[in-house]
Amino acid sequence: MSIGVHNIGQGCVTCLDHDEHYILTFPNGYGRQVNALTGIFIFNALSILTVPWIELGGECSISCSKTGYNASIVFHTKPFYGGKKHRITAEIFSPNDKKPFCSIEGEWNGVMYAKYSTGENAVFIDTKKMPTIKKKVRKLEDQDDFESRCLWKDVTYNLK
Known about the structure:
6% of the residues are buried. The longest helix is centred in the C-terminal third of the chain and has 7 residues, at 153-159. The strands form two sheets. Strands 1, 2, 3, 4, 7, 8, 9, 10, 11 and 12 form a ten-stranded antiparallel sheet that branches. The protein has two helices and twelve strands; from the N terminus they run E-E-E-E-E-E-E-E-E-E-E-E-H-H. Helix content is 7%, strand content 48%. It has helices at residues 148-151, 153-159, and strands spanning 2-5, 11-15, 20-24, 28-32, 35-41, 44-49, 53-64, 70-76, 87-93, 102-107, 111-116, 121-126. The chain is mainly β.
């Protein structure tokens, strides 16, 4: 049993310190809960529901028009039998190169490892050790009508 959401469109992230703008696409989102057949007792099958989980799946990309760097990212969904949740693989490309200078794999909500074209291997990022940084958002009255917080303000209010 599951539900899937296909995210369409793209987002823009601005890195103010470097005056860089990144265009990115989004992975799909899935809410999962799988029935696990655990045994047969006198013609009856006992089915136990697993703990539900959210996962991301599919391909997305990130590109910077100023630098020309880009990345291709794949969020892997958990196979029906075995496998791990939250796996990710990615390749990062220099401008005008078709071969990646860095490949990344791991868990998007855990530790990701980088393998560089030089042969060097390193921890790319450990999300469990990252500090929480309060986001900076313009006041609602300063936002355009179709900016996310302004557009969804009534829904957010009613959910609270």
